[in-house]
Write a structure and sequence with these properties.
Blueprint: H1 7-12, H2 19-37, E1 44-52, E2 57-58, E3 63-71, E4 74-75, E5 81-84, E6 98-101, E7 124-134, E8 138-140, E9 143-145, H3 148-165, H4 170-176, H5 188-193, H6 204-212
Length: 229
């Protein structure tokens, strides 16, 4: 709770900060964002055990800093790979975070193997371990923060659920209209209970942002569990 927005963010927007919002609605909104996009939007330490393939090592989350990287229980030489973790204003690798191995017959770009090219990391099940700090974040004022659009969307989802459940005074009900949605649709809990809901929330200003931050091959990416590595 509070990984993307917190009580202060809600208060600035004039939204309620009672226990129902902080302990029920906000966690649902944050989980919905993670499930919908396939990303966590905050810096977190994790270890991922992954399968080697003939292509680049696709990571479950964008890599901010790498601590250890092992192949078949041996540390991989840092000179033998490149980490694709660039962010704007450079090329943005966050929708396809990966580690590419140096090609012995390089013919592409900076001298590294092309996406899906040889030599890859050797086929194996759970033969690669990556430990570091991960997250789809922007660097602002020296700290890793959620992208502004994601912060705004999380606030919108909290407002969406507040308007749906009702029990609001007239002033708050009017205030929620500034978010621009009819807020007619499924509940956050129902959204989370439905596996791979392709139609999204059916609220354009919500679904458009989710689409921009969704991995293009989300279904085939290594999986992670909400709230953990």
């Amino acid at each position: 709770m509070g990984n993307i927005i917190n009580e202060a963010d809600l208060a600035v927007e004039g939204l309620p900060t009672d226990q129902r919002v902080l302990t029920v609605i906000l966690p649902l909104a944050e989980e919905a964002l993670e499930r919908a996009t396939g990303y966590r939007f905050y810096a977190h330490d994790a270890t991922f055990v992954l399968d080697g393939t003939d292509g680049p090592l696709v990571l479950p989350q964008p890599l901010i800093t790498l601590s250890t990287f092992t192949l078949d229980d041996e540390e991989v030489d840092a000179a033998s790979y490149i980490i694709r973790n660039r962010r704007p204003p450079d090329v943005d690798d966050r929708l396809y975070p990966r580690i590419e191995r140096l090609s012995t017959a390089a013919t592409w770009g900076e001298g590294w193997s092309s996406i899906g090219g040889s030599p890859g990391w050797g086929s194996g099940v759970g033969n690669i371990s990556v430990t570091g700090t991960f997250g789809f974040t922007d660097l602002r004022n020296g700290a890793e923060k959620p992208p502004h659009e994601i912060i705004r969307l999380c606030v919108r989802l909290v407002a969406y659920e507040l308007a749906r459940v009702g029990d609001l005074d007239a002033q708050m009900a009017r205030k929620l209209q500034i978010y621009g949605s009819s807020f007619e649709g499924i509940s956050l809990a129902s959204y989370l209970a439905a596996a791979d809901r392709p139609e999204g929330f059916a609220v354009p200003e919500i679904d458009q942002v989710i689409a921009r931050f969704s991995h293009p091959a989300k279904a085939s990416r290594p999986k992670f569990a909400f709230g953990g590595a």
